[in-house]
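Quick check before the chapter quiz. The format below is the same one you will see on the exam, so make sure you can read both the input and the output lines.
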Amino acid sequence: MKWATGKDYDVREVECMAMGAESCKYTIPKKAIE
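Here is the expected output.
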């Protein structure tokens, strides 16, 4: 996200196709890491 916003975010992958999920899903908090 830093390349798009200039700020760091705690992006987490919560589902993964390689692990059998239907799609890859990520959570991205609205507030950047300070």
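If your answer matched, good. Residues 1-34 form one domain.
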